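Please describe what follows:
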Amino acid sequence: MKIWALMIVITLSSIFVTYFNLPLTVIYESSLIKLPSGILPLGRLDDDEEISILIGLKLRNQDLLENLIAKGINLPLDENFLNNFLPTIEDYQKIIDFIKKANPEEIMTYKNRLIIAFKAKAKDIEQLLNVKFYRFFYNNSIYYYSSAPIINSEIANYISGFAGLENITRYKNSLYFQAITTLFTPQEIREIYGIEKLLKQGYNGAGQTIVIGSVGSFSQADIEKFTSMFNIPYQPIEVHKVLSYTSGVEAETTIDIEWARAIAPGAKIILVTIPDSSFISFTKLFNYIVSNDIGKIVSTSWIIEEDLLSKDEINIQHSIFLLGLAKGINFFFPSGDWGSSNTPRSLLIPSSMNKTISYYPSSDPFVTSVGGTTLIKKTIGFYEEAWGGIDNGLTYGSGGGFSKFFTRPFYQPEQIGKMRGYPDVSFNAGSSSPYAIIFNGKLSAGYGTSIATPIWAAITAILSQMSKGNVGFLNYRLYKIYNSTIYSEVFNDITEGTNGYYNATKGWDPVTGLGTPKTYELLNYLKTSFKSIYIIPTTDISIKIKINDSIESIPKVINFTDKINLKIDLSDTIYISKDIRYKYLKTYGILNSNKTSFNLTSSDNGNIIIVYNKQYFINATTNFGYIVGAGWQNEGDYITVRAINPFYLFFTFKGWKGDINSSFPEINLKVDRSYNIYAEWQFSIIGLIFFISILAALVIGIFLIFREARKLTKRATQAEQGLGSLGYS
């Protein structure tokens, strides 16, 4: 019995040790979507099937970056400052090395290190991510999906989520054609919305870039015919292919370019294209634009239902939009053409008047969502109402509502509610007030919020020209107008119409947002209303400085209308405790200096970034000798601390004690806290004996040398005397 009991104890101990030696793991359930009902399972995916996977990396200090934007920081931010938020090169390399274990066919990396995409065989990805891939039949097609990735926590520390674990989710565009009954030409639209007056003053978007992010290519012949027909100057379109190939001509892409050119004929247009509408492809497209700084104004007319995306997928793209905004990039997306409660994929998401459907990225707080109105002719001029309604029990028209994922952003008023409301603005999009378009060589009538979207992007290009590139975050600026006396002077408030579940009302509403622009008045107001200086410390705490002899806490925004005079005094050193301090390094932004006192006279807005190095005190002492490498050290540095004893022959190093235990006199550490360490030396009897032995040997050696020298001297004297007696002198 004792033997069996012993065996049980040994077995249980083995299980215990094995369990607690297992590395901690993270299960990415939040990277999985909810599959539609009614799928037919078909078993495991073939081992050699090639799968494309995208990994999102976590921004560092993302909350801080979002808070800076929320407080009205001037955009774009300095690239050096932004590097504080990007994943590090070392962390990015760790993910690349991790991916290489799957023997990938290709790895796509990006300069901003926000995402990594790769393609590999299913069996290798299964082993890498600890997943299983399965096939299923749905709606006359075969798709795949996987279980949740299980990743070692050391690697998971850097990963925000995965995309590509299934291939059923795709973006949709919202462009529609109809027979020509009536249509609006570029000239008419520009006249109605006050754009023509700006063009006559020379504000046509010159010097600005509009980026069209879309699927497929465009018809060169159609664009040339469109510009010729409506007397619009033609400019060639620059094309960037995110992937090495592209698909054929896409109507959406062609029409977006036509109407961006119609509104801002002086702007440069760049098409950034992908061959398909998968979530991974659009994520690559958005990050390509942000990472390569293609342009500051981006229009994309493709969206997807929030319910079809995983939490991690949304977070991955949200980080891209956040970083893009920090770099001064404004993204525009349509709110959709299916009203409040409808979808072009009713099989995936059943439509119901009692359930609203939100669309992404329109619902993201860091993009501008564009809804739709209908232009209705009056005796003199036009008036607008919300485009939409209910037809055969299904909603249609301007998409809008509330995100199920994002809470109400800082710039939207509290009365909107707890969640992010969209659209933000609107423009003509209705089926009864369509646009003139050229497609397949023919004049046609097109409508939808996907045409309203590039128009708003083009309007922003004109604003950028008027304000010398100083647009900032457009949503933040537009909502500052809301509830102000200027609101009715620069916006057409749409108060009639519905998108099914929601109605257009006074002020902002989830059908038309803030309304449509009185473009001439709005842009003239915006070009002069945005002057401020944002003073930011690079510290993780709020610090105090002197501004015009008044002590102020920063971060701080200083708003002004004309010119500003500032005298700024900084502390060279700020002590938080006896072992933590901040040491002033430099100031950059609209002012570059390493002085602690300076004057600023400016008529331009921008950021003053004050750089303080956080330092920790490495308190290293010893009972004999001295220490090298201790004292105040910068956070994040890797340092070497050495205990040195000039009389090392008499002592042996016993070890370091305190916050670090080591038996070596030299220790390497990363400065992430303060340290108290003590180097102890111990008197060595053996060393003393060794020293005495050497000393004795030295004394004996000297004695022997002197003795031999005396002998040689004596012999020499004797020899000299002998020679003298023989008569030699």
